[in-house]
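Teaching assistant here, posting this on the class forum so everyone can see the example we discussed in section. The complex has two components, and the goal was to see what a joint structure prediction looks like when all of them are supplied at once.
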Amino acid sequence: MDLTRLEINRRTALLTSAAIAANVINPMRAFAQETPRKGGVFNVHYAAEQRQLNPSIQASTGVYIIGGKIQENLVDLDANGQPVGVLAESWEGTPDGKTVTFKLRQGVTWHDGKPFTSADVEFTAMNMWKKILNYGSTLQLFLTAVETPDAHTAIFKYERPMPLNLLLRALPDLGYVSAKHLYESGDIRQNPTNLAPVGTGPFKFVKYERGQYIIADRNENYWRPNAPYLDRIVWKVITDRAAASAQMEAGELHYAPFSSLTLSDLARLGKDKRFIVSTKGNEGNARTNTLEFNFRRKELSDIRVRRAIAHAINVPFFIENFLGDFAKLGTGPIPSTSTDFYPGANTPQYAYDKAKAIALLNEAGFKPGTGGTRFSLRLLPAPWGEDISLWSTFIQQSLGEIGIPVDIVRNDGGGFLKQVYDEHAFDIATGWHQYRNDPAVSTTVWYRSGQPKGAPWTNQWGWQDTNVDKTIDDAATEVDPAKRKALYAQFVKEVNTELPVWMPIEQIFLTTITAKARNHSNTPRWGSASWHDLWLSA
Amino acid sequence: MRILSLAGRRLAASIPTLVLILIGVFLLLQFAPGDTVDAMMAQMGGGDAATAKELRKFYGLDLSIPAQLGNYLWRLVRLDLGFSSIYGKPVASVIIERLPPTILLMTASLSFAFFFGLLFGVIAARGVNRWPDTLISTLGLIFYATPSFWFGLMAIVVFSVYLQWLPPGGFEDIGTVRTGIWRMLDIASHLVLPTLTLGLIFLAIYLRIMRASMLEVLNLDYVRTARAKGLDETRVVTRHVLRNALLPMVTLIGLQAGTMLGGSVVVESVFSLPGLGRLAYESVVQRDLNTLLGIVFVSALLVISVNFVVDLIYARLDPRITAEG
C-alpha cells in the first residue's frame, strides 16, 4: 500500500475527529434564555437539482430538502424518533392489521386558500403513493382503498395485514400529501405544480430559477401558532463542493445538508466557531456501504469465496484512516441507529483475518496460478460519494494481497445502475444502501428474490434463498411489534451467514450549519423536516 | 448582395456538417450505458421496474434506435428541438434561458483577453528580450498553466471570503429586487471574478500570438520603408504593423468562439452561473439526449455565424483577401 497517502489521510481523519469532538457539545448548548427571533433569510446549499419538487411522487432527500418545507406529511418523527402527527392528529389500527384509521387535522388550508380534507389524502394515496412514488408503490402494494366517511377521517384498507409500526415509520418519508384540486386532471408527472409546489406547510413557494435558486416565503396562515419564524428560505444551486464551502465562509450560505461538502472542508469548517458540523439530525438517514456479489460468476457463487473476500478486508483500519468519525463498523443491513430493529452485533461477522481468507480460497479450490493470481474481478463503484471511491480502492488493494487482482470500472449514475442492476455486467459492486427507519421500506428488497430486472438497489445478484424469502414475507405482514423485531433479527442472521451482499460500514450524513441557527437538528430527519420552529439569532 | 450570397452559400455548405454532427452525437450517447430513466432512478434513490417501463414509454425510449433518430431528425426539420426530460419543457426555451449568462460571460472574457492580449503583446514585442517582455511572458505562462477551477476558488477566497469586495457566486443578488441600471451593475459585479478567471487563460494565448505576430511583421521590408520615411515608432506600430499583425488574432477568436460555449463548465460550476456549459454537462449525466443535441445544434449555428463574421473582418483588415474567397 502507498504509505504517504495513508499518512495524509490519517492526519485528516485525526483532525476531523478532534473537530467533531469539539463540536458535539455545541448543539447541546442551552439556549433557554434566548427568546425566539422572528424574521431572517435562511440560505441553503442545494447540490443537485431534481426534475421536480413534489415529495408525494419522489422520495429522495433532494426533494425533501425543498418540498418538505412546502408540503407536509401525515406523520413525522419526533426528537426521539417516535411518530408524531402532522396532518394526521391521531391514528388507530385494527388487530387484524387490515384497516388503519387516520383522524386529520382540522382548519388546515392549502397555500391557495382551499381547505385540506380527507379527499386530498385519498387522492394522494391512491394516485401518487400507490402508483408513482418510489418505495411508496411497494409499501402500498396491498392498499385497496381509502375510505373518507367525513372530511377529516381517512380509513386505509389493506388486502394483507399492514403492521401499524411499519406504516408510521414509513409515512414520514412516504406520506406527503398533495392537493387533489390541483392534480385531478391530466398526467400527474407532467403537472406544472410539481415545479411550483402548493402545500399546507410553513413556507409558500415563490420562485424557481433553474440552475440558480429557489425561494419560499413564510406562510402567514400556517396552522401551528406563532410559526414559522423565518421570513424566507433560499436554496442556492451550487454544484461545485469547494465553491459551496467558500460560500459558507463568505456568509452566503447558512446550511449545507447531507454531507454536501468535501470531507476535508467538513473537517476544516468543524474547527471554525462560526459553524457546527455534526451528524445530529440525520439519524433517520443512515446508510451502509455495500459489497455486492454477482452469483453468475462461478467463483463468487461459492460461499467460501465470499467469506474469504470479507475476511481479507480490514474494515476498522479503513474507517480509522479514511473516514474517521464520519463512520463506524457496520454489522449488517440494519444499522445501530435503528433502535426499534437493530439486532445487535451477535450475528455472523467477518473480522480481518488474511490467513483465514487464504485458507478458505485454497479450500474452495482456487489456488494461486502464474504470478500468484487466483482469479480476477471487475469492481463497479457507485459515483455517489468520496467514501465509495476510497472504499473501492481499498477493496482493490486488499484483494490484490490475496491473489485476486481487481479491475475498477467507473461509471456515472445512470451508467452504474444500468450495468449493475439491469445488465448484471459486474463481478462485485459497491455503493450505499439507504436505511429508511423500517427494514421493509428499502432494505429487504436487497435480499428478496423475484425482483424485476432493472430495479435499482434490489436483489439482482442471481441469488435466491427460500428461508430468507419466507422470513422477509412473514415480517412484512406481522402486526405484533415484538415478533416483527425477532423476525428481522433472524433475517440479519440469515443474510450475514449467506452473504449475498456485505454491509460492513455504517454512516450518517453530516450537517454543516451556521452557529446562529436555533432549534436545528432536533429530529432524526431534520434536513427533510418542515423547519417550522427554526430561527436565526441576531 | 455579395454578402448575402456568400452567407447563403456558407449556410448551404454547413448543413451536411450539422446533420453529421447531430447523428454523431446521437450515436455516441447511445454507447453510454444507461438512459435518462436510469439517471432519474439514480437521482430518486430507487423505483420499481413497472414505473421505469412506463417512463421509458413516456420519453419514447421504448422505440428502436434508428426510429428514435428518425423521429429526432424529422422534428428538427420542422424546427422543433424536442422536449427536455430533466426540465419538463421544450428544449428551445431551456436553451434560451441559459443563453444570456453564457453570452455575457463569454463576450466579456473574450473581449478582456483580446484587448489586454493585444496591449501586452505589443508591449512585449517592442521590448523583446528586455524586462517588460520577460515579465509579461512569464505572467502569461503562469496564467496559462494554472487550472481555472483553482484560479476561481482562490479568487473567491481572496475577494469574497477575506476582502468581501465581490460576491462569491451566482448571477445576481436574490435578496433584493433591482431594476434598470442597478440590476446591470449587480450582474456586472457578479461577473467580475468569472470573467477574470476565464479571461486570464485566454489572455495568455492572445498575448503569445500577438507577440509572435508583431515580431514577424516588424521585420518586414515595408516597416523599414515606413521608418525610412521618418515616421515615429508609435505611428509605425499603430498604422502599419498592428493591422497586419491582427490577422492571426482574428483567426483565433473565430476558433475560440466555438469552444467558448461549451468550454466554461468549470467556471460556471465554481461560480454557480446558470450557463450553457453546465447545462450540457448535466444533460450528459442525466442522459437528456434532446437537450444535449439542442445545445450542439445551437453551438454549431453559432460557430458557423462567427466564422462568417470573421471572414468579413479578414477582408476589412487585408484588402487582398476579398469576401469572394
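For the discussion questions: Residues 307 and 465 of chain A are 17 Å apart (CA to CA). The two ends of chain A are 50 Å apart (CA to CA). Think about how each of these relates to the inputs above.
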